[in-house]
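Apologies for my clumsy wording, but can you show me some protein sequence, whichever is easiest, together with the matching structure tokens, please?
=====
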Amino acid sequence: MNQLDRHDTLLLAELQRDARQTVQQLATAVGLSSTPCWKRVKDMEASGIIRGYTALVDREKVGLSLCVLAEVNLTRHNEDDVRRFERAVAESPQIVSCYATTGQADYVIKVLVPDIKSYENFLHETAFKLPGVTHVRSSVVLKEVKAETRLPLEPVKPVAARRRKSA
């Protein structure tokens, strides 16, 4: 698939809203019949646009009350060290996201653990032992203001335009 058309974008938005919908429900929501709708979804799965389906779990209700964003710096940035670090990060279940960044940190990781003692243990048993790590700077999340999983597929109107419309 090279480019998404309006129906593809609508399908993706609907699947992000509720991936448990039937093909008929999706088709109705986006204005297609079932067969073309099903084919479009299958094409997007095959092309990797749709990477998978998952359930959103409330982390606090499963005992992962502490969220920490940590900036990580590496000693060296050669290809082998970077690859080893990234592979070790991928294998650590407490690290739920990792971003290579510009600025002061080489990487920013998001870590979910039950409590501060667990995070201290994570630092000593995992983070400080990751290949090439020279420095970890932690910020404990006090409150999640927004934690959206949906991609903004529709063009977002500027705030001023939304205010004029609602006035």
Q: What stands out?
A: The mean pLDDT is 92. The helical segments are 6-17, 23-30, 34-46, 79-91, 116-125, 159-166. The chain is about 40% helix and 20% strand. Strands lie at 66-74, 95-100, 107-113, 133-140.
